[in-house]
Each structure stands twice: as C-alpha cells, then as structure tokens.
Write a structure and sequence with these properties.
Elements: H1 2-20, H2 43-49, H3 54-63, H4 66-69, E1 75-80, H5 82-87, H6 92-97, H7 100-108, E2 111-112, H8 118-122, E3 128-140, E4 144-157, E5 159-162, E6 165-167, E7 174-176, E8 179-184, H9 196-202, H10 207-228, E9 257-261, H11 263-268, H12 274-282, E10 287-289, E11 294-296, H13 300-306, E12 309-310, H14 313-316, H15 328-331, E13 345-347, E14 358-360, E15 365-369, E16 372-377, E17 380-384, E18 396-399, E19 402-407
Helix pairs in contact: 3-7, 10-12
Length: about 425
C-alpha cells in the first residue's frame, strides 16, 4: 500500500517541477538581492583613499587599528578632516610624536561600534547612544581594575550633534563594505565624568540654584524628622542624592536634563539670598492626614525648581539597552514635543506610603531658531544658550549621569 501511494505522487511532483520551470523571475513574490560592490572597498581602504582625511588615516595606521575595524562587524568612523585636526592643534608632527596611549584615546573615540547611515541617526526622536572603540582601565584598591567604556550620543539634524554639541559635516558620506565614514569639521570631545551635583557646586553662578535645592530638601527633612524621627524625605531631588550618585537603571536610575537657573535668573525673579528662598518655600508647604496616610503638598520652591528639568525617570527605568538622555540637539527637533520626552516625570510628593508613584506634569514646548533652542510654558519662553565647542563649554554640561544647561530666566510667577 505504501508503494502505491509513492507511485501516485511522482506524476504530481513532475508536473509541479515543469510548471515552476515556466515561471519568469518577475512572477515570484521574493526578489533575489545581490550584494552591491563598494567602489571604496573596506573601511580601511576607503579611509586610506579619502583625500581630506590624510592626518586621521596616518594616526589610524600608526595605531594599527585595521584589524579591529575589519573583524567582520559594522563600524562608523566620524573622521575629523585634516583642517579640523590642525585647528585643534593636531598637526602631523603632533600626531607623530603624541604618546601612543594619548593618540589611541583620541582616535578610537571617533569610531562607533555600529554601522549607521543618515537614516539611523535621523530616525529616533532623541540622540542615540552608541559605544566607541575607546576604553580605559582604572585601578581602585577597593574594587581592583575596572574597564571604562566610552559612549557617544549621536543625532543628525542638519548638522551632527555629538553629546549635544554641534559638529558640522565636512564632506559626503563614504560607504564601505563594513560600515560608513563621515568626514566632520571638529575633533570630538568625551563627556565629563562628574556627577551633576559636582558641576552645580563647581559653578559660581549656580550658587542660588544649589541653595534652592538645599532649602527645599531641608524643609521636608526637618518635617519628617520631627514627625517620624527619621529622614523620610520625599523631595523632588531626594536630598540631591540622585544628582551625586551613580544610578542603576535596573533599579530606579534615570538621566535627568536640568535647565539650571543662574544667579541672574533668581535675582530677576526677586530672590536675592537664602532667606528669600526659605520664605518662598515655606509659604506653600502644607501637611495633613487622611484616614489612611500622611499627605505632603509640594512646596512652591519644589515646583519652581521642578519646572526647570526633564526627569527622564520612566524613560530609563529598566532600560539599560537604550537609556534616554535628552540633549541640546534633541531640543531643536519637533519630535521632542511628543508628550513623552518633553514632560516632567516626578516621584510622587503626595503620598508618603507610595514614594515611587509617578506623576505626569504639563509638558514643556521646545522650539529652535538658527540652532538656538527655547522652551515655553504657560506663555513664558526661556532661551537655552548653546555652547558650540564641547572643549570650552561654560553653559552646557553633559555627563554619563545626565545633562545640565544654564538658563538666565525662571518660569515665574508659578501658575
């Protein structure tokens, strides 16, 4: 019986083979694709043939990096042109005599470990975080050796934005068999390794901002100390702890963007000293009880300071692969006003028993004119000054733990 079934199937199979042989290639739903030849070959070959990247290529060759970028993975090289390197002081003589370790740090930070074309860098609503080939090793007697990897936040919005700083394109994209090369008009700078609170403490024109954080926290801590006998603070900034410690996104980490009011901003709003801040904070702090729990109303100072930041809490929560940090370039694109990236997500200040209940605040509206960003809330608009050069920045600061942008105005009075 089994042999009879097999005999009946053979004519059917022969008919199917004959029918498919008559099909034209265009009749198929699946169109065959063939890899396109790259006239510039691999990244190593393409780099060596780029006339405007001779200095970068010489440094690249001196370091022997060819084996890294030809290892079968995709890469993107943001290569400063010869003129960009020389403008930063990296002449051919300097590159030839620079200690190899220093040269390695310089060059490898310009090589991202992912193949990205313009679409990849323009598509996301905010800058994308990519690893570079740069890594340093540090030693601590308590923890031993640690490998520190360096990342780039990349956005293409007209010009490039690297870590939130503008870098002009300096030539057409060069496509290679294992990635892309983008000639750029500046040497890229790594981000600062400070915590945000360290930056606030180091900047003299942010002393009133630091006072505001301390005053606001102290009011809450004093009250809860008196009530419970321990410091159950539920302040906006958690006693500024989260601005001075490394956070783990797997727990409750976040990467806030602070629009830090300068002393001039506070004085323009009528706050001249510590006592002014204390009186303002106390004017609206209310405590109460319900049948179930204690309530604590947000102080006006909490609102004043909180309005000037993007908390980015929920965007980073348990998101180690793609943590979100809103940077300057992101503020210049319409996509930022999507009801997600332009809002303030805060730890609840209403219910002490549920300290991590999330509250959604009104969103800030961002816009840009000639590359300078502004933010608007309740018909009040604040310009956000932009530092063009990461190496000499005095108003824009980006760290692994968040970003800080100085502004000279407050959203005041509070509505």
């Amino acid at each position: 019986m089994y042999c009879m079934k097999r005999i009946h199937y053979i004519p059917v199979l022969l008919l199917l083979v004959a029918w498919t042989s008559c099909l034209r290639p265009s009749d198929s739903d699946i169109v065959s694709s063939h890899s396109q030849p790259f006239k510039d070959g691999s990244l190593v070959t393409a780099l060596s043939n780029a006339p405007s990247l001779k200095l970068f290529n010489k440094a690249f060759t001196r370091l022997g990096l060819a084996h890294l970028v030809d290892s079968g993975r995709g890469y993107t090289i943001f290569a400063p042109t010869d003129s960009a390197l020389m403008a930063a002081g990296y002449t051919e003589q300097v590159l030839n005599t620079l200690p190899e370790d220093s040269l390695n740090k310089l060059i490898t930070y310009h090589i991202a470990t992912a193949a990205m074309d313009e679409t990849a860098m323009q598509g996301p609503a905010v800058s994308i975080k990519v690893a570079t080939l740069r890594s340093d090793t540090s030693f601590n007697q308590a923890t031993g050796y640690t490998v520190n990897n360096y990342f780039l936040y990349v956005l293409k919005a007209g010009d490039f934005f690297f870590n939130g700083f503008t870098v002009p394109a300096a030539g057409e994209r060069i496509s290679a068999s294992n990635g892309y090369i983008f000639p750029v008009g500046k040497v890229l700078s790594t981000i600062r390794q400070d915590f945000l609170l360290d930056i606030i403490d180091q900047e003299p024109d942010l002393s009133m901002y630091r006072e505001a954080l301390a005053v606001n926290d102290s009011i809450r801590v004093d009250y809860f100390n008196n009530t419970f006998g321990d410091a159950l603070s539920d302040s906006l900034l958690q006693n500024a702890y989260w601005l001075s410690h490394q956070m783990n996104p797997l727990s409750r980490g976040y990467f806030p963007t602070l629009f830090a009011p300068t002393n001039a901003a506070f004085k323009a709003a009528g706050f001249h000293d510590h006592e002014d801040l204390v009186q303002f904070a106390k004017s609206g702090a209310h405590y109460g009880y319900t049948d179930d729990f204690l309530t604590f109303n947000q102080t006006p100072l909490d609102t004043l300071v909180g309005r000037m930041m993007l908390y980015n809490y929920s965007l980073a929560y348990k998101n180690t692969a793609f943590p979100v940090m809103v940077l300057y370039g992101d503020l210049t694109t319409p996509a930022i006003n999507n009801g997600v990236y332009n809002i303030f997500w805060a730890i609840s200040s209403n219910y002490i028993f549920d300290g991590f209940n999330m509250h959604l605040k009104d969103g800030l509206q961002f816009s840009a004119n000639d590359g300078v960003a502004s933010m608007t809330w309740h018909n009040m608009t604040i310009t956000i000054p932009h530092d063009d050069n990461a190496r000499t920045a005095t108003r824009n600061f980006v760290t692994p733990y968040g970003a800080l942008y100085k502004v000279d105005k407050l959203f005041y009075p509070i509505h």
